Automatic annotation (TrEMBL):
WD repeats lie at residues 1125-1156, 1177-1211. The keyword Repeat applies. PANTHER family: NACHT DOMAIN- AND WD REPEAT-CONTAINING PROTEIN 1 (PTHR45013:SF1). This is NACHT and WD repeat domain containing 1. It comes from Poecilia latipinna (sailfin molly). SMART domains: AAA, WD40. PROSITE patterns: WD_REPEATS_1 (PS00678), WD_REPEATS_2 (PS50082). It comes from the Eukaryota. Keywords: Repeat, WD repeat. It holds the Pfam family NACHT. Residues 288-450 form the AAA+ ATPase domain.
Length: 1304
């Protein structure tokens, strides 16, 4: 009832339910649940209960236990251990009862190995078989487990005449059915002590029984139960909220420090090696030096040595010395990522030394983190602080970023900083370390222990444990240890020896010639005691879990394992056949016997089970994880994290019974527990287990083909984690669509890295849709499903959003494989070291960058001489490939082909043998200035971009992107609806080539009349009817042959304005006999100032134009007069009139927009936008209703502004500047500088959230200055700051009708 009220999903108090208060996982375990009594003959139940309470106190961030104390004292078991003196007193009291003395001496045997000697209660199995001790049917006790509060129930006026049968549930009775007076006396004493000492946490309830029971239907009993539940919920919530906020850096450092202190106590001997290392550290304190390296074979005690060294050096070094230690093998079988290690080390050093930590969100690459690590060491040295940094077991690092090559580890350590590392002698890490240090490094080997050192360790270990061994047992231990001299083997033997009694036969001792053999014998003993399925299943799950398992997760998974359940209920049926789980006490017993081999490690703020030795993991794999067992365990783990059996009945076949359908009471596994609170454990584990279980259809549906999953994992775990998972899936699955999704995420990675995992769902879905939509029709299983999900969510998005209607971003599967971005400016030259798979780039600033072609990561940034590199780069390596020489030479470009290639935005692949054009690589982000061919790849770079692109020559041609309009075209225009036959029109394909007589200076398109207008440098305007392009019209140039600067058409396309250097001309465009004709000029106007740069033709023959100097003019051809409008501080780059001719937008190079009302002419809004780089507005288009205006900018974004308020509604990054825009239905069609056609719809809800911030995904800011609407002609200005003033379109539109509504 208590758990049911606290968490509805845990409907039964017997289930180990977990619920979430804030972000803390709460585990509820009743060790009495699932068993009728305790049939185990080892008499350790009470000790196990106390052990679990201590574990709760150790790992709980808030409450530790809850006590529910009624009127029953409960079972009072015999003590398992009785000190020798007390046992002799017991024997003396039975001196007149020889039979009793004989029975007592049979059941209790003296253990002389205990210090002092102790009598041990013998296991029941010595006298009865396991079947005989199985209890008969009895009362199944489902008492609630203990945690952090006390609830005490009293029955003040209970009448004894009610009878003992009615009191059986609530009071202790003797075997004769009478009230147990002794138990009641103990209970009264316990309650008295609680009343006196625990008033702050005690909740007292008094209730009268009804016919000897609690009846929830009675009003007073229902109120009693409600009161308990409400108190529990409220007090638990308060205690959890009072718990200190978890700091993962502090907790991780504390855990490693505690573990190091614990391990250091077990070291005996090694005095000579410790002295050598301490002397080397002391001598290098004030000078630059290299790291100290400790190596040895597995199990030689390197970790213990380093922990002991840390303790001793803290006493030797000055008081202000800072110790940072990381035991990288502590979480085995999980292997730590080097970035996580460097992150935590940097933060701990900064906090300990008083340095200002750099925000880790700003560290976007492994190389930046590596440089940050080295910079922090330098700062600590400069401050004069002493730092001792110990990194143990470097060979245990994960493979990411080629961590085993140790490029991240500095070889030149500054003064006052001591760097001590350890690794296995046979590891790749040690080989890399020797190559980097050469002969000058301080390298120390940990050798096997001698027999005397082993004996010293044994005596010390036994003394701490208050145990001893017989002479025969000691000799057996030392003889077994001497063969290998391994401290790990000795530790394993001594761990088992703590449980040896003086009467334990020699044949039962756990001995072996190696550590592996000792561990195998230990597992065999555990199987005999707990069952092979239980032991193998539990340890196998810990090994196969990708990031480890919490205890609650392990109990859930074991409850789903039918083989384990069948073994558990081999001798007795489940108490409730409809609810079957593994009793929690079974795992608690096994964990107690594995207490020296299992550890609780903190991972991301969660307590996980881990092995204390990686050798145990290898032995478990070899003993239990056959291919069939491994696949079955992966399937169980996958089903658990899928939530397949939550709330469902799972069949199981128990011995002697038919198939049972039972509820396993496992929790649901939603992707999001609450808005913003993701199921991190599911994200970490599910893809791995689905893949290795062969559940590929579920993998496609739940992970690869789920847009919500892709977004959630990229945001919570990082895009690198998602790409790694998809890469593994694409390698093993026979599904080309999975590979395309993986490649799409690789292409998205640069933008996701810039946002540091904080990309909104709308931005993520938009970019995914803009890359995959063209593949949806041919790849429907995964990509079609993804695109449909993205589109459906965007259609219902509660915020203003742009929805892609075409694949205008680089789609996966084509030639482009990777884009490498580095913070060193444009790239001028390239070189590849084929032998070592490295790419070297030289920049204009003299910076040389080194990339790995294996994992596409930036390895080194080398600062060269100022002045920069020019055109060629060569690299050379030493014979052992440890030294690189990079030569960036200054060579003037004299090859005319090379000069031409600098101006193109695409690459062409030609066959040398045939001379034919093989392929064209479209999608370059800047004019290509450097190319090289490497192993079926083309590497391209540009001096105008800080990125390098890798193109494959062996890609699938079916995924070749649609042809683009030639990128970087000097002038372009765009229209829609020119062909009713889709087969005749392919975006980017050449449908007609039109001859011109001079260089083109500008283009304009008449949408309705289907005319192409072309302005030439000679001053001529050519007009091509698109239906008959060969029938060309010509407007002759003016007398001075001034070139045409720009063209502008009226809204009805009946008037054409032509701007030259020195004059403006107005023409009429008519139609005669179905053929276009031009009349005029109707009017001319001389220019006495700077010539126009952009212009728009307004109603009533008015022309609005801007100049390169920032001037804005309004000329009336009808009246022959002009007017000056408010100028801009930089050149005008965009002038656009609205569809309903009520507004005009003027934009300039400084990213300032001014929105003008045209009737009468008045400035409505000034919109100023400031980003990090690339300012300037290039084009604009009003929506059909004139309610919104779209703009394209130099910063490669498309923005949507509200016309009525001037507010910014939406910003979208499109990877290339949009240079032309055309209104299309409820959105726009645009043309980018790369030649891509962007087609998007805009959706804006009727009411926008007041807290909507369009710049939360951009590193930019904007300001809107508007004139007050209260009176015409007023010059008062009001500043709108989106961070302070909320946006509410409904209230704004209700106060002033829109101009579109007036015209309609």
């Amino acid at each position: 009832m208590l758990i049911f009220r606290a968490e509805p999903s845990a409907a039964a108090p017997t289930s180990p339910a977990r619920f979430c208060m804030t972000s803390l996982p709460v585990q509820v375990v009743d060790l009495n649940w699932g068993i009728r009594t305790f049939p185990y003959g080892d008499h350790e139940v009470s000790e196990i209960f106390l052990q679990e309470i201590q574990t709760s106190q150790k790992v709980s961030a808030g409450p530790a236990f809850v006590g529910l104390l009624g009127n029953q004292y409960g079972h009072r078991p015999l003590p398992r251990l009785i000190p020798e003196k007390q046992f002799e007193v017991l024997l003396s009291t039975l001196s007149k009862n020889p039979e009793g003395v004989q029975q007592l001496q049979e059941w209790f045997r003296k253990d002389n190995n205990s210090v002092p000697p102790t009598y041990v209660l013998q296991p029941v199995t010595l006298f009865y078989s396991s079947g005989e001790i199985c209890p008969p049917e009895g009362v199944w006790k489902d008492n609630c487990q203990m945690s952090a509060l006390l609830f005490v129930r009293e029955i003040p006026r209970q009448r004894m005449k009610d009878g003992s049968k009615r009191l059986a549930k609530f009071m202790d009775l003797t075997a004769d059915g009478l009230l147990d007076a002794e138990a009641q006396e103990f209970l009264t004493g316990l309650k008295s002590r609680l009343y006196a000492t625990s008033k702050k946490i005690l909740n007292l309830h008094c209730v009268e029984l009804n016919s000897g029971s609690i009846d929830p239907k009675r009003k007073e009993h229902a109120e009693y139960l409600d009161s308990i539940c409400q108190q529990f919920i409220s007090q638990m919530t308060i205690r959890i909220s009072e718990a200190e906020e978890f700091d993962w850096v502090v907790e991780e450092a504390r855990q490693h420090t505690i573990m190091a202190a614990k391990l250091s106590k077990s070291l005996q001997g090694r005095d000579g090696l410790l002295g050598k290392i301490c002397l080397a550290m002391w001598e290098s304190t004030l000078v630059h030096h290299g790291p100290l390296v400790v190596h040895g074979t597995a199990g030689m005690g390197k970790t213990t040595l380093l922990c002991k060294l840390a303790q001793e050096m803290q006493d030797v070094l000055e008081a202000k010395a800072v110790l940072v230690i990381r035991l990288l093998a502590a979480n085995h079988p999980q292997r730590p990522n080097i970035n996580h290690v460097l992150n935590s080390v940097c933060l701990q050093v900064c906090l300990a030394c008083g340095l200002a930590p750099r925000p880790l969100m700003s560290v976007s690459s492994h190389l930046e983190l590596q440089q940050l690590f080295q910079n922090i060491l330098e700062k600590v040295s400069q401050q004069g602080n002493t730092l001792l940094l110990i990194l143990d077991s470097l060979e245990q690092l994960a493979d990411q970023y080629q961590a085993h090559q140790l490029r991240w580890l500095p070889t030149d350590v500054p003064p006052n900083v001591h760097l001590l590392v350890s690794m296995e002698t046979t590891s790749e890490a040690f080989a890399s370390m020797r190559l980097r240090l050469g002969t000058a490094g301080n390298v120390f080997e940990v050798e096997p222990l001698s027999r005397d050192e082993g004996q010293q360790i044994m005596e010390s270990h036994l003394q701490v444990a208050k145990r001893t061994l017989t002479r025969e047992q000691k000799d057996a231990v030392l003889q077994s240890f001497h063969a290998s001299g391994s401290p790990l083997q000795l530790q394993l033997i001594l761990s088992a020896a703590k449980n040896w009694t003086s009467f334990t036969p020699t044949t039962e001792l756990l001995l072996g010639s190696s550590s592996e053999e000792v561990m195998s014998q230990l597992l065999l003993k555990l199987e005999e005691k707990h069952g092979k399925e239980l032991v193998g299943g539990a340890l196998g799950c810990i090994v196969l879990a990708r990031r480890g398992l919490m205890e609650a997760e392990l109990r859930d998974v074991m409850s789903l394992d039918d083989d384990v359940i069948s073994e558990v209920y081999r001798y007795s049926l489940p108490p409730t056949p409809s609810l079957i789980r593994m009793p929690p006490v079974l795992w608690a017993r096994l964990k107690r016997d594995l207490r020296d081999q299992l550890e609780i490690q903190w991972t991301d703020g969660v307590a996980m089970l881990a092995f204390s030795s990686r050798l145990l993991s290898e032995v478990v794999k070899a003993r239990y994880l056959t291919p069939e067992r491994r696949g079955r365990t992966h399937r169980i783990l996958a089903e658990y994290f899928l939530g397949c059996w939550s709330g469902r009945l799972k069949p199981v076949a128990l011995p002697g019974l038919t198939l049972l359908l039972s509820d396993r009471k496992v929790p649901p596994q939603p992707l999001w527990f609450a808005p913003g609170l993701a199921n991190v454990r599911k994200l970490q584990e599910l893809p791995y287990h689905l893949l290795h279980a062969g559940l590929w259809e579920e993998l496609r549906q739940e992970v690869v083909g789920s847009a919500e999953w892709l977004y959630c994992q990229s945001r919570v775990c990082g895009v690198s984690s998602l790409i790694s998972d998809l890469d593994q899936c694409s390698q093993y699955m026979d599904c080309c669509e999975t590979g395309l999704v993986h490649k799409a995420l690789v292409l998205m990675k640069p933008s996701l890295d810039i946002l540091s995992g904080h990309m909104d769902r709308s931005v993520f879905y938009s970019e995914l849709l803009a890359r995959l939509s063209s593949l949806a029709s041919t790849s429907r299983t995964v990509i079609g499903q993804l695109c449909s999900q993205c589109d459906d969510w965007l259609q219902t998005c509660p915020e203003p959003v742009l929805i892609p209607r075409s694949s205008f971003l680089q789609q996966p599967g084509g030639a482009l494989q990777h884009t490498l971005t580095a913070p060193h400016g444009g790239v001028l030259c390239l070189a590849v070291g084929a032998a070592v798979r490295l790419l070297v780039t030289g920049s204009a600033g003299g910076v040389v960058a080194v990339w790995s072609l294996l994992d596409k990561h930036l390895l080194q940034v080398l600062e060269g001489p100022s002045g920069g590199t020019k055109s060629s780069c060569q690299i050379s390596y030493s014979s052992d490939r440890t030294m690189m020489a990079a030569f960036c030479l200054s060579c003037p470009a004299q090859d005319p082909v090379a000069v031409t290639s600098c101006c193109v935005w695409f690459g062409q692949i030609w066959s040398v043998t045939t001379g034919h054009l093989v392929d064209t690589l479209c999608g370059c982000n800047a004019p290509v200035t450097a190319l090289l061919l490497y192993d079926h790849f083309v590497v391209s770079a540009s001096s105008a971009a800080d990125s390098v692109q890798l193109w494959s020559l062996t890609y699938d041609p079916s995924h070749k992107p649609l042809p683009h309009i030639p990128a970087g075209s000097a002038h372009s225009s765009y229209g829609s609806g020119f062909s009713s036959d889709p087969a005749r029109f392919c975006p980017g394909s050449v449908s007609e080539r039109l001859p011109v007589s001079a260089e083109v200076s500008c283009l304009e398109l008449a949408q309705q009349k289907r005319l192409l207008l072309c302005g030439l440098r000679s001053g001529t305007v050519l007009i091509y009817p698109l239906a008959l392009p060969q029938e060309t019209l010509c407007i002759p140039p003016p007398e001075g042959l001034a070139p045409v600067l720009c063209l502008a058409l009226g809204s009805q396309e009946s008037l054409l304005a032509v701007a030259h250097w020195d004059t403006l001309r107005l023409f009429q465009v008519a139609t005669r006999d179905g053929f276009p004709a031009v009349e005029g000029p109707l009017a001319t106007a001389p220019l006495l100032h700077a010539p126009p740069s952009h212009m728009a033709l307004l109603p009533h023959r008015r022309l609005l134009y801007g100049t390169a100097g920032g001037e804005v003019k309004l000329h009336d051809f009808g009246a022959g007069v002009g007017a000056d409008l408010q100028p801009h501080s930089s050149g005008i780059t965009c002038v656009t009139a609205s569809n309903w001719e009520t507004h005009a937008l003027v934009g300039s190079q400084d990213a300032t927009l001014r929105l003008w009302a045209l009737d009468p002419v008045a400035l409505d809004h000034t919109m100023e936008y400031q980003g990090l780089f690339f300012q300037g507005v290039l084009c604009a288009a009003f929506a059909d209703s004139d309610r919104f205006v779209f703009t394209g900018s130099q910063d490669q974004t498309v923005k949507v502004w509200d016309v009525a308020s001037g507010k910014l509604l939406c910003v979208q990054f499109v990877y290339s500047p949009v240079v032309r825009m055309l209104t299309f239905r409820n959105g726009f069609v645009g043309l980018t500088l790369q030649g891509c056609v962007v087609q998007e719809a805009f959706r804006c809800p009727d009411r926008v959230d007041p807290d909507h911030n369009p710049l939360r995904n951009m590193k930019a800011r904007y300001r809107v200055t508007s004139r007050e609407k209260g009176g015409a002609g007023r010059s008062d200005l009001q500043v709108f700051d989106p961070a302070q003033i909320s946006l509410n379109l409904v209230s704004m539109l209700s106060s002033k009708p829109s101009s579109a509504c007036v015209l309609l």
